[in-house]
Amino acid sequence: MNSNRMARFHKLEVTNVHQETADSIVVSLAVPPGLREDFKFIHGQYLTLKLSLDGEELRRSYSICSSPLDPEEIRIAVKKVPHGRASTVLVEKLQKGMTIEVMTPMGNFHTLLDPDHSKHYVAFAAGSGITPILSILKTVLRTEPKSRFTLFYGNTDRDRIIFRTKLEELKVRHGDRLSVHHILSKGMDEDMLFNGRITTEKAAQLLDRFVTDPLDKEFFICGPEQMMVNVSEALESDGVQKKHIHVELFSSPAAAMAPKTTPATENGSFTGVCKVKVILDGRETVMEVPANGDAVLDAALDAGLDVPFACKGAVCCTCKARVVEGKVEMEMNYALTDDEVADGYVLTCQTHPRSGTVTIDYDQH
Asked: What domains can you pick out in the chain, each with its CATH number?
């Protein structure tokens, strides 16, 4: 839908700020008619906000919780995290009528939908990881009338369940096509399966009890790193192919999830200074970039180019571009698929030249 559109910031008006839980809000953003095409999004994608705090520019990405089937506004959820400067300001200060700089939608946390599909979608979420899952859930159930959805949702206690009321409304609306199972780390349920954290063993037990039908399945996982590792291990042990397991990270993993380090093109032993040509908005800029120096993204920013970026941690796809000439290597990659890497795409925040000349095309995003 927007895979070939260059990411740009636009000022959007905040039309509503809803206090969802004690430490989370849902922000509604109005999209002017002239920007509707730019802000078309796919279920599971995110927005990047640009904030200025004490003279410093902060960029933070927040998943969209609304469905693309309701295009009149875009909603995101923001949860205040300990020592989180951006999230604290947004949760405590953001008000209706304010404007905020928002980048056009990005992200690969989705699968193609078809009204003829008859699938079973299964999601594991924890905390604010429910945000993109909610967008996916609502869109799947409305687009594929023969499909069903099962959600396993982990939280500390009932008061911290983001979108608890909305999930109950959706259960009433969609009947037995939607199943929601809450797992509370401080829960007191008689069935111990619904108490505690989602470990690998618990994930396997949940799958064994609630996901036994013969339908084709797609799995989505979003939340804290360890939970995502646990669920991935349970699914792979159960023989689920990796192409059916979709994972969304909110921050760079500490260690548990091994990054994909496959180079976008064949490695070389080049260690000198490379002439890197960057194509951006149809314009070509040539820079000298040391092979063992800054990543291509940082070099482009230093050269004054308005290249898109958000996390700089190999988690989002905002800085994605295609290598059309030369050899490069990525330090880390938590965002691109194997097929994208094989097709020459890179995360430029992690990319270093490995040949004398390299051409990187941001317009082929």
From this structure: 9-103 (2.40.30.10), 119-248 (3.40.50.80), 273-364 (3.10.20.30)
